[in-house]
């Protein structure tokens, strides 16, 4: 569950957000990009890495320049993404042009030319060629040896051995070396899929390429319900089934070639490839089975009912994808769509997408074939669509969103074809003789599923404290999917839920929003908060009046997921900067507004719609806006919305003698809580210094769990330290304040001469810049440089110059003060307390040291 979420919006209308009250919910924040003045909102993850930003992010560019413009954006803002070299780390995977004239570019993250699982970024250009959205997930700070210790063949054998121990044999695909982020660690892994027919399996394995340990495994067959659903066909009479006559067999076969782009005898206007088709197989005990056939093309035998439904609903689904979403088959490449029915090798009452076809199982008493359920057929093909769009990983919240989207597609497909089945919000109701189905999208609680996000709902499966396995349904993907299901039903039909009123926009419009979000805005690890943001962006694309956006937002709020709402929003041209900071605010509402009332969080206010305000001192400020709309009072508040900083890091000026080790304290002042600090250190002068060691003992950062040197270049006299809190416990973050961050020990060469000095420079070099990062912000700090100076060390207290400190030196001091004796040699040796004066205080200091075990005289 994410702790930090910031809004995205499209066009200048979208300019603010709802207040987030619960600490477990995300917070929305504004632009932290001073070099881009038209950013509306952005989102960081809890590690301070930018994951979502929207606004006018570029000048209009031609389609031929969109990739370069994307890379330039990543390069210019690489600190916010924690990128080092965008062109090496991000590779273009797909470029799509949609029916709104927008261009969407998907980038895959690589680390030293190795794919990073889940590392994906997307850029979106509007019809005018302006980059207006960037979103995705980037895995920052990977530091792993890229060379495997075991071969790919060994990795396959380990995976096969493990699968054999509990499931069965599997045949591998070509393995791939990947970086796998898993439970706060990074692993170099061999990724391999193992396929089996009986029992049906499409197991994904990630095998540690260093140790051979099985880091992760999951059956990637996505089924409609893990307990099995649906039996029987409903008796529909179809007068149009596209089949194919085989002159060799002298039979009609359930093969539809009439959706091909070069073959349109029945007016379907399909766009499938010239060798592709829709096929229905009878599986029996093995897959894929054999293509269903009939001698007279009259498919009326009861044993053929599931075959007929599987074929007809798949044909209709292809047509629906093409007409409603301009999508040519599930992969948008016109691929074949195959369905296998009556599969009996593993059990009854189930259905799944296996990566190449959908499979409908046989059925038992009290059930019918799930092929007779248009919502189930639509659900399974929905998994195929998702796999070729966002590719939501099948675990935790992304897996729940994966299942939910399939339910949305299944329900919308059923609503689009009322002539074949009475539309409702039950899933798979035709599959049971009772007609109850196995999930309700309108009343999830009736089936033991949640209708509200998070632990406040008793049916919510905790994903934060869950390790996904086959046996726990990958942390409740079929259960938690009902939160998205309830959102979709509310958006379609409207209603009141958890005290929030939603005005429905219709099933057809709602599925357009969900599909567009999945196709262009969601990523493989999108959770429900990301889902909300993606649907907001999608609805903004589809409806410029923002009427849909209002209801999309209200429906998410109704199920406990906050999202921006154009009924009342505000933004600012910048929400962070150096003190003093002037901010230009803009309030907007689609309601008629009588009065505007701003509270800037620093004691000042305004009654203008779009005021400017100057923050005089550093701090983190909440901003609120209240309107009166014909007596209807609306108010929103953005917590931690404006951040004014005066942050700096500095080094003490130190002195030391030749052949000594000096301690250099690096101090910092921070305005916001920090969990990540980069400190570069240079000493480019002629003084011969050697790095010795470092410590955070006695420093404000000593609670951080990562304290390391990440770069050392003795030739150019520079190195960089990283201090990081990765435990996830916000109590360990560095609170606002000032003081020591790090202590560095440097040795001065024995050949150094007195009064020789060297600068200590902290303002960074190359890609290493002084950086403060917290959950609220990531930025480069101001710096104050200092010096290391060589001085011959004076032994304070050795006033008679005999090389030791004893009673004779005390007598020498008494003679100097009271008997007009000779002064200390040199005079500074009598300055025992380093006060820059030799006086009676030093005599008292000496007496205390000699007779009362007092402190030693100060150093050089």
CA radius of gyration is 34 Å
Unreliable parts: 1-32, 223-232
In whole angstroms, the N-to-C terminal distance is 54 Å
Q: Choose one word for the global shape.
A: elongated
Secondary structure category: alpha+beta
Binned, the helix content reads: 10-25%
Outline the biggest β-sheet: 11 strands, mixed
Average predicted confidence as pLDDT: 88
Number of strands: 46
Strand content: 25-35%
Instruction: Tell me the number of helical segments per DSSP (H or I, 4 or more residues long).
Output: 13
Can you tell me about this structure?
The protein has 860 residues and is of the alpha+beta class. It has 13 helices and 46 strands. The strands form 10 sheets. Strands 1, 2, 3, 4, 5, 6, 7, 8, 9, 10 and 11 form an 11-stranded mixed sheet that branches. Strands 12, 15, 16, 17, 19, 20 and 21 form a 7-stranded mixed sheet that branches. Helix 12 runs antiparallel to helix 13. It is elongated.
